Amino acid sequence: MHIEGSMMPGMLLSLAEKNRIDLPYKTLDEVKQAYQFNNLQEFVDLYIQGTEVIQSAEDFYTLTTAYLSKCYAQNIMHTEVFCDIRTYTDRGLPAAMVLDGIEAGFKDAQQKFGITGGMIPTFIRHLGAEKAYADWQFYKQHSERFLAIGLAAVEVGYPASLFKDVFAEVKTTGLPIVAHAGEEGSADYIWSAIKDIHAERIDHGIRCLEDPELVSYLQKTQIPLTVCPCSNVSLNVFDHMNQHVIGEMLDLGLNVTINSDDPAHFGAYLSENMQQVQTHCGITDEQLIRMTHNAIDASFADQARKNQMHQVVNEYESTTN
User: Fold this and answer.
1) Sign of the torsion formed by the C-alpha atoms of 309, 63, 60 and 257
2) pLDDT tens digits, one per residue of 67-115
3) 182, 152 contact by CB (below 8 A)
4) What is the per-residue pLDDT across 163-210, written as a single tens digit (0 to 9) for each?
5) Which of 217, 236, 167, 172 is CA-nearest to residue 197?
6) Backbone angles phi, psi at 244, to 5 degrees
7) Contact between 61 and 46 (Cβ < 8 Å)
């Protein structure tokens, strides 16, 4: 889940007004219409406009608390959000505002809602290894504030191998590594994330089915795959949800979890993603429960928190049998 991807239309307008940012939309209806994008470029344009209205730690706090309130409404107990500093430092804004605002939002949500979780800063792969290394100089000074370090954004043309050196440094800190791979990129991009930067969790990973050897490896290692069904359909990876491969992935015994990616833009938070795969992919209650247990194990929560969350799911399962 990318934190800027939770910005609802009303917040986009209000932050733009607060920070005097000129948008191509003047009314809430116009913003809502823009959220019904038709292709990847329109989505990217909208996402960038969302980042441009964020100008301070206070804005990140506002965004994060709104997202975590939505999590509470959907009975989410733990959430891990992607963020980056490069988007903001390139505009002359301080890197610290990203961390400070998100962290403050999580602190309040834990006190108010009991929600745990935190940040996974990412390197923006299409900006190259040099900028990733520059960002790492900041991140490594704050490593105790993070759950992991990730690799995100445009896959094709930017395999994880390009970032091998910077992730070798990340590895020395003990921080877990995650990587977006196998959504727009082929199975080779998943292999690169695994072999070149030693990713412990693969974000998306749906194109692993192209490579039987990779499927076999994922079966044996049980590397978690954070599948984002509604995102995949919205970005035309699949034309319709009934074409999604999540059922096949489960049948093959892969370690699948369900995630929301950019929930405001794709019109689907976690519950809606679960509902969609049940309606269109034939996913059963038992499979949803299995994927929830998978997600708990794949999280970077401490073991006591994982046990607590497993118990909640077990209690639910016992009441439905």
Assistant:
1) positive
2) 999 999 999 999 999 999 999 999 999 999 999 999 999 999 999 999 9
3) no
4) 999 999 999 999 999 999 999 899 999 999 999 999 999 999 999 999
5) 167
6) -65, 145
7) no
Q: How far is CA 130 from the centre of its chain?
A: 23
What span, in angstroms and rounded, lies between the C-alpha atoms of 195 and 160?
Answer: 9
- Rounded CA-CA distance 216/222 in Å is 10
Active site residue 183: yes
Indicate if the alpha-carbon torsion angle 192, 193, 194, 198 is positive or negative: positive
Q: Which pTM was predicted?
A: 0.94
For residue 269 the two structure tokens come to 């938070």
Chain centroid offset of residue 39 CA: 20
pLDDT digits (tens, 9 = 90+) for 116-127: 999 999 999 999
The mean per-residue pLDDT over the stretch 230-238 comes to 92
What does the longest C-alpha to C-alpha distance in the chain come to? 56
Q: How many residues does the chain have?
A: 321
Angstrom distance (rounded) from CA 186 to CA 176: 23
Active-site hit among 4, 80, 103, 183 = 183
Distance CA 196, CA 165 (A): 9
* Residue 1 and residue 82 in contact, taking contact as beta carbons nearer than 8 Å: yes
Looking at this protein, which amino acid is placed at residue 268? A
**Res 37: pLDDT:** 78
Q: How far apart are CA 148 and CA 170, in angstroms?
A: 9
pLDDT exceeds cutoff 80 at 40: no
